Structures are given as C-alpha cells and as structure tokens.
Amino acid sequence: MTLPIRPKNQQLLPLSVPSLIPAGPVPRRKFLAGLIAGAGSIALSACGGGGSSDSPAAVANDESVAKRAGSSGFTVTAPAANASVSGTITVSGTAGTTWHNVAVYDHATVAKIGADTTPSSGKFSIQVDTTKLTVGSHQIDVVAFSVAAGQAGGTKTTQTITIKVTRATSGSTSGALFYGMNGHLAWPDGIYHTMSAAAQLALLKDLGVTNYRVDVADGGMAQTVANALTGAFAGSGVAIMPCINAASTAYDQNGSESAAYTLGYNLGASIAKPLKGLVKYIECGNELDSDGLVTNGDGSNTNNYSPAIWPAFRGVIRGMIDGVKAIDPTIQCGVNVGIPLAYRALQMLWSGITPDGSVNGVSGAAPVRWDYTTFHWYQSSGDITCGWRNNACVNVLQILKDSFNLPIWLTEWGWEGSQVTPTQQASYVTQALTEYRSLKDQYNIQSVQMYCLIDPDFGLIQADGVTKNPSYSAFKKFVAANPV
C-alpha cells in the first residue's frame, strides 16, 4: 500500500533549553514534542525519627517551640484542605533543611498510612492509599522528624490536613485510564507554558479525561511534570503518563547500539528520578520508527527495516526501559511505533530478531520486554481492525493482542490536520470513541489518548487556549454519556 503522508509528532524543542537541542532537525506533528488554610497545627517535641511504632500525637504545645517549627520550612502543599480524594493520593510539600524524615498518619487511629520518606532537595512526596480509609471526612497528620527513620532523639513537627475520602466509580484500572488526551505540559514556551497546570487540568476534567500524555526530553521537563503532580494534579483523579521523546535529544539513529543504549539509559533514569512515586506508567520513545527505519514496504515485514538504523533503535529503547526501571522498578514501561503497520518492529524487538535484508532476519538478539504495548492510529490509516495490507484486511489490534498478550494503549489517535473541517473533526471524534469503547474489553485496550488538547490543526482547542472547536463538545458529550 502507499502510506499517506502525515507529519510526525516530533518538534524541534526551543533553543532556549540547550539540553534539548537535538543534533539535527527533528520533524513534527507537534508531539514530543505556611499551613494549608484552616487545616493544620504545628508542634514539636523530643522524639525519635518515626518508624512503625512512632506516634505523632505525643507532641508538645510550647508556643516558642511551635514558632520554631513554623519557620523551619516544613509545609504541606498537597492535598489541599478539604480536597475530595480517592484511590492512591500523593502527600507532598517542602521540608527545608531541618527535617530528615516525613511520614503520614491517620489522625484518629494514629496508624501510619504513608511510609517514612527521606526528603530530596528539600521536598517530599508520599503515597497514601485512601482505599484503606472509610468514606467521609478524615484528618491526616503529616509528621516531619529531625532525625532519620528509626533513630532516637530529635524533634518533630506535625501538620494536620482534612480530606474527604470518596470511592472511584470506574471499577477497574483500565476504566479509570480509558479516556485520555495528549498535551505538552512541560514545554518551556508557547501556550502550554503560559497556561498553568491548574488551567490545563480544568479543561481535562471538563472533558472527562482521566489520563494525560505529556512529552519529556530531560530531567528538567520531568521535574515540571512532577511539580504538576504534587501541585494542581494531586488528588485530582487525572493521571499523567510521561512519554520520553528521545528524538529531541542527542540520539543518533546511525550510531551503535551500545551508544544508543547508554543515552537511553541515562535519559530514562534522569526522567524517572523526579517522577518516582508519582507516576505508574512511562512511554519509552515516540515514533522512533518514523524517520528512516522503514526503507521499503509498509513495515509489516522484517525486510522492510534498515539494518543500519536498527541497532540504535533497539539500543535506545532497551536503555530507556532499563534506566526507568533502575530508578523505580514499579513503573510500567510502554513502547510504540508510529507507522500504521509497523507492528513488525515491535514483534522483532520482542523476539530478538535483527533485520539484515532477508525475509526472516537474524535471530539471537536479547529480547526486549515492556509492560504495555502502545500504538498510534490516525484517521488517514482507516479502521484499526481493518488496516489495508496486500489488498487484504488486517486487524492490527488482534495482531498486538496475539503477539504480546499485554494491555494495549492507543497513545495517539485523531484526524489529519487542517484539511479536515471542524464538522468532520467532531464526527470523527464520536466515531472513533464509539469504536474504541466497543473494542475495549475484547482487546484489553486500557487507554485511548487523543492528539491533542490544544493545537491549531489537531486540537480540540485552538492555539489561543480559549477557542473550542466543535470536536471539544463531541468529545465531552461522548465521555459523559459513555462512562467506563
């Protein structure tokens, strides 16, 4: 088949960020491009540094001690006072230089519900599973200790936050993640930079989106995402899935596998560090097949792939996965391709096959393993259950299911740019969501993330961040009428 010409979703990132300047031009589709008010109390006492038996209740109420605590730099920034929360939430804030261990306790029972955590660069982030609490209003004590966990002596300070525990209605992990969206939260300029994380969150929640895919290309961009997760997004019910955009780094697809692996490993590790404990999913790479890896054909055969570029392609993906897992082995990693029928690239990575120009390639390479399979499918490619190959219908979802037996995420889908009228865009959104929701359980589709929130050609909202296209209403109405 003749593949439709479509722009790739990668963009040269701004020159104002030197670490993001790639070695050469990167094509685009534009992706990858004090106390809480009225809620707290502060107190200090001589105590040990936490541990499973430590009680936060036995604290002094001396006024001078309390004043010292207030000037210590210990502040809880999330969740907000009286926030409605469900599932696992993030309790975060600043610890200054005085406090060396922070933990979270149920105020009523004095049970520890958030593990001892050593602040990093003066900040802390603790996961709390609210499903272990009863529904309703609760007070949680966020306690900072001046000594490490388990050590004797020292002092502590407490901030008490009121939260309202609810129960999610989705009933399943895939349901909670299903309706997704793409955006560029971490970009250092443009509308996504000038629009606050809170404002982006408000749009996502209005749409009914629960899963936000954002591109990152270094630790600084990852920190921007982490700040959003510990700030506006904390307890919001909207998850963020970072996508590592290796193409916006010094990645050399003509280099060696070992060099690409090292770059990928360092990139994955640097991005995972600020996100540890904050995200459950990271996509390792974005359409790395789309820039010359397929030299002929449609990508469905082994001999469609360049033997010269393949080693770096495999190396950087392996490296990103290993780098992420080295920092946080609980993070699940996904891998994607961008060419519509390039599922063969994923099969070769999984099976340890290296293309050499022959029909079958060469076996024996180390198999690459990921946790969920991601794929991109745009309107121009037709129906994903009937991709056209050799004058025959090919069910790409069935191939992905049979090849890997992993959850499937469509991390990009949408119409093809400005040539599609606003009315056609809205119609396509309804059509695509109807199909994907109907196929969700059959193929274990966990998330479908539309491209994208704000964009002059592909967005539900125009580049000004204000003007909503008819497709915005179509998306919102469908999600509201079709909960998962």
TrEMBL record:
Write down the PROSITE patterns for this protein, in alphabetical order: TAT
InterPro entries per UniProt:
Asl1_glyco_hydro_catalytic (IPR024655), GH (IPR017853), TAT_signal (IPR006311)
User: Where in the numbering of this chain does the Asl1-like glycosyl hydrolase catalytic domain appear?
Assistant: 369-436
- Pfam families from the entry? Glyco_hydro_cc
Classification via Gene3D superfamilies: Glycosidases
Q: What does the UniProt keyword field contain? A: Hydrolase
**GO molecular-function term, one example from the UniProt record:** hydrolase activity
Q: What is this protein called?
A: Glycosyl hydrolase
